[in-house]
Amino acid sequence: MLDFRYHVTSLVAVFLALIVGIVVGVGISGSGFVDKSERQKYENRIEKLQARVDELSRDNDALQEQQQSGSAFMADTYPVLMQHRLVGKRVAVIVVGATGGATGADVQRALDDADATVVRYRALKLPLATPTIRAALQGYEGSPLLTDVGHELAQEWATGGKTPVADALSAVIVEEQRGTNAKPADGVVVMQTSDPRGAATRRFLDGFYTGLGASGVPVVGVEESATLVSTVPLFGRYSGFSTVDDIETASGRFALALLLAGATKGNYGVKATASAPLPKIPAAAGA
Fold it and tell me: What is the largest CA-CA distance in the chain?
């Protein structure tokens, strides 16, 4: 979704550049290079462009006022909208790469505000050491292909229960973990904080993300709006994924809670890849 304030600002800059160019042209005409009729055309164009700049500036001021009003409304209503939104829900939080940092803190705040329970937290080391993984899986009766191993690990972390792959690999591929593998999750939050270097790591993650998307529970990939290399296109390749690209905002945290509660899948936030700021909000009881 485009930010119209930036669009308006860009247009103002373009018109101002045109005005400057025309003024330079008028200056040249004053030196005798352009006749009087041509000079009058320049001056008329300057007046029209200046009028357009003034109009766009008024539009920009109105948009800023609307944004401030919207931000104030969200700040006032956020606690009420989030309260008990995910009460009784068990959520798995998975970080692909280094620990979650600020993004992880934003996710935790959203889950706390919505009264969710983090059933498990896992941070995967990247890049993956393929020989170490194969050694750890000795005796495992499933497929040894990295894509299949990633798929099975994702399914285990989402559904809980018996977790032979997670039991075998956690010591060698998990950088940080909290919570057990036993209980199923009602939803999964994913953030990728590192570039998956190496073909083997990419094969593993392809299977892993496919497995999460096929788990049957809501899966939401999140990032901050200032993230330089967005993960939205990556997560968008996998069926079952939704995304939130502004998790540091109240609106982004609310979108995450709505998606984990079962809202319509999609890409939400403020970037061009988003279809809307928020999923459709369910009607109040009795409405």
Answer: 91
Please give the full DSSP string across 112-148, using - where no structure is assigned: HHTT-EEEEEEEE-SS--HHHHHHHTTT--S---HHH
Q: How far is CA 80 from CA 87, 114, 282, in A?
A: 14, 10, 14
Q: Which long-range contacts does 62-67 make (Cβ < 8 Å, 24+ apart)? A: 63/4, 63/5, 63/8, 64/5, 67/5
Neighbours of 172 (CB within 10 A): 14
Residue 267 and residue 274 in contact, taking contact as beta carbons nearer than 8 Å: yes
**What six digits make up the tokens of 71?**
């931000």
Burial of 82 by CB count in 10 Å (0-12 exposed, 13-18 middle, 19+ buried)? buried
Residue range 45-80, pLDDT digits in tens: 778 878 877 787 777 776 676 666 566 666 788 999
Helix (H) or strand (E) holding 285: none
Where does residue 51 rank: exposed (0-12), middle (13-18), buried (19+ CB within 10 A)? exposed
CATH topology of domain 83-268: Rossmann fold (3.40.50)
CA distance 243 to 264: 11
Burial grade of 147 (CB within 10 A; 0-12, 13-18, 19 or more)? middle
Q: Which two structure tokens, joined as six digits, stand for 124?
A: 């995967």
Q: Which of 222, 231, 280 is nearest to 105 (CA)?
A: 222
Nearest alpha-carbon partner for 128 in 101, 168, 97, 153: 97
The HSE-up count of residue 85 (CA atoms within 13 Å, CB side) is: 25
State the pLDDT at residue 80.
Answer: 92
Q: In Å, what is the CA distance from 183 to each residue of 89, 97, 107, 173?
A: 12, 24, 20, 21
pTM of the model: 0.77
Residue type, 86: L
Quick check: 6 pLDDT over 60? no
Cβ neighbours of residue 250 under 8 Å, at least 6 residues apart? Answer: 74, 75, 78
